[in-house]
Amino acid sequence: MRLMGRGGTSLPGKLAMKVSPDLLGELSRNVATIIVTGTNGKTTTTRMMGQCLSDAGIDYFTNKTGANLMSGILTEFCMNSSPAGKPKRKYALIECDEAAFRQTGKYLNAKLVLVTNVFRDQLDRFGEVTHTLSCLRDGIDDSKNAIICLNADCSLSVSLADGLDREIIYHGSNIPLSEKSIPEVSDATQCIRCKGNYTYTYRTYGHLGGFRCEKCGFQRPNPFVAVVEVVKLDQLQSDVVIEIDGKAYPFSINLPGGYNIYNAAGTVAAAYKLGISSEVIQSALSTFKGGFGRMESFFVNEKRYQIILVKNPAGCNQVLTYLAEIDTPIALVICLNDLFADGTDTSWIWDVNFEMLEALDCLESLYISGTRADEMALRLKYAGVPLEKMTVEKESSKLLDRLGEQSSDVYIVPTYTAMLELRDIICKKYGLDNFWE
Fold first, then answer.
1. How far apart (Å, rounded) are the C-alpha atoms in residues 282 and 191?
2. Are 174 and 221 a contacting pair, CB within 8 Å?
3. Contact 436/8 with Cβ under 8 angstroms?
4. Which amino acids are annotated catalytic?
5. Dist CA 19 CA 160 (whole Å)
6. Exposure string (b/e) for 362-384, b if CB count within 10 Å is 16 or more?
7. CATH class of domain segment(s) 294-430
8. pTM over 0.85
9. Helices (H), 42-142
10. CATH architecture of 11-287
């Protein structure tokens, strides 16, 4: 498939399951597996963890293409097995979709499970967050020998620890990550145990922060790994101070954005628990390369392009917060698709605070594309974005031609399949790496 220019990330696994439905259990039997799951940040966190493992000299394989369903995960295990089914490497680092974790947890010999967070996402697949939590609980219950690493600031994630009799470690931020806060729809306004209302000592974004239920006492646990100071945030990186078991270390994270600070904190907790030294983790976070479409940057004719994947209100609001920090003119592209991998229900865009764009001083022009471009244009009209700044261009090749005429830097904010389509055209036009490379 790759000789034909295709990704070959899922179809091999689908065919393998036809031959042997339990093949994943056979191939993973002697492989120590690290699983990264949760709603937002799986791919980036997996990339961070991968750099930590590499720098520590640990030989591993991973599904770096982001094919995180059962078929894509099985494809990676097939590729990393001998014809006799013997593993070529002792460690696997696997990004796993939340719903797929309910299936894969039965087969994978998980050494550690890292849950990034839980947000409302893809309503057509998951429904409300209670279903997502159910999938994660089932996968964790099946991961009998795993250390469980949870986000202390996410009340939904913390609830996954209820009734567990294994080692649990928490990561989080002891402080707000930005001085600016934007109005957001919370995915967890009431206590998951007693339905009492949460109060917060501080918030980072969405429902994340120092939560406490005054009715039953359910509250944020003290994290093993905690962000205690944000030194600098800019368009290239984030400099922070992170405490590990009470001792402070400086970290330079090779990506911008507050949500990537969370991804880094989770990585630090998991890597440290696996026995990787703080010095190696510091180096890894400062040098790792982000995943395709996740704050991915490249230059064309000295003009900077950045692709930032979005898929739900919480993540999209964080991208808008990041864009609000830019002080130079930009051309913004928003691409909304409604295919299965994006989520066929696009009503989530009405929960995003696009009203921020009206006052965005750096916004020079705004292009709208994708299968649901008209709906997005309507949403932005109601958000107060000036019509003279908006251009709808549904054809990707023509969109890139228009962007080539822009003098300002370009920020592309697409959903998943729109991102793949644009990257494919960019690869052919400008020589970017294919997503599986």
1. 36
2. no
3. yes
4. 345
5. 35
6. bbbbbbbbbbbbebbbebbeebe
7. alpha beta
8. yes
9. 42-55, 70-79, 98-104, 123-126, 129-142
10. 3-Layer(aba) Sandwich (3.40)
For 380: left if phi > 0, alpha if psi spans -120 to 50, otherwise beta; the answer is: alpha
Yes or no: say if 242 and 225 are a contact pair by the CB < 8 Å rule.
Answer: yes
* DSSP label of 293: T
- List per-residue pLDDT tens for the chain, 437 residues long: 667 666 556 777 778 878 888 899 999 999 999 999 999 999 999 999 999 999 999 999 999 877 889 999 999 999 999 988 899 999 999 999 999 999 999 999 899 999 999 998 755 554 578 889 999 999 999 999 999 999 999 999 999 999 999 999 999 999 998 766 666 778 888 999 999 999 999 999 989 999 999 999 999 999 999 999 999 988 788 999 999 999 999 999 999 888 899 999 999 999 999 999 999 999 999 999 877 777 888 888 788 889 999 988 988 998 998 898 888 899 999 999 999 888 888 999 999 999 989 888 889 899 999 999 999 999 999 999 988 889 999 988 899 888 888 889 999 999 999 998 988 888 887 776 655 45
Determine how many CB atoms are found less than 10 A away from the CB of residue 57.
Answer: 8
Buried b / exposed e over 91-102, threshold 16 CB at 10 Å, is bbbbbbbbbbbb
The Cα 311–Cα 75 span in angstroms is: 25
Span(s) in the chain for CATH 3.40.1190.10: 11-287
Enumerate the CATH 3.90.190.20 domain ranges in the chain, comma separated.
294-430
CA angle 149-103-74, nearest 5°? 95
Structure tokens at 9: 């990330």
